[in-house]
C-alpha cells in the first residue's frame, strides 16, 4: 500500500511539472460557427487537427476546443552553476552546458526538465 501511495505521489508531481510548461488558448466559438481552423496569438490560422512548432520552441495542436501548446525545450538541472553555464540554441530548441572559462568543454548534467 505504501509503495502504491508513493508511486502516486511521484506521478502527481511529474504531471504537475510537465503541465506547467503547457497552456491552452480556447477557441472562440459563436453560435452556428463550424470553423475548421484555429487562429493563434499572432493571427495565423491553422487547420483543425494540425500540429506545428512555434518560433518560441513550442509544439502546438489545433482542436475543436482551441490550441494546445507545450514547450519542447529540455532545461538542464543539477550541474555546477559556478563553473558552468547553459547556452540556449533557438534553432535547435536545446541547451548545451559548457565551462565558462573554456566553452569548448561540456559539463556533466545531472538531469533535464521538460
From TrEMBL:
A Pfam entry, by short name: PSP94
Superkingdom of source: Eukaryota
Keywords carried by this UniProt record: Disulfide bond, Secreted, Signal
Any one annotated GO CC term: extracellular region
Protein's cellular compartments: Secreted
N-terminal signal peptide: 1-20
Keyword Secreted appears in the UniProt entry: yes
Matches recorded under InterPro entries: PSP94
Chief location bin: secreted
Family: Belongs to the beta-microseminoprotein family.
Name listed for the protein in its UniProt record: Beta-microseminoprotein
Gene: MSMB
Amino acid at each position: 500500500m505504501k509503495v502504491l501511495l508513493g508511486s502516486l505521489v511521484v506521478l502527481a508531481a511529474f504531471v504537475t511539472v510537465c503541465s506547467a510548461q503547457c497552456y491552452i488558448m480556447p477557441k472562440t466559438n459563436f453560435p452556428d460557427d463550424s470553423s475548421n481552423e484555429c487562429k493563434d496569438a499572432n493571427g495565423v490560422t491553422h487547420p483543425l487537427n494540425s500540429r506545428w512548432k512555434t518560433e518560441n520552441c513550442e509544439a502546438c495542436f489545433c482542436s475543436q476546443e482551441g490550441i494546445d501548446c507545450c514547450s519542447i525545450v529540455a532545461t538542464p538541472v543539477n550541474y555546477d552553476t559556478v563553473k558552468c553555464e547553459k547556452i540556449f540554441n533557438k534553432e535547435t530548441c536545446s541547451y548545451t552546458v559548457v565551462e565558462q572559462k573554456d566553452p569548448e568543454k561540456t559539463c556533466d548534467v545531472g538531469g533535464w526538465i521538460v
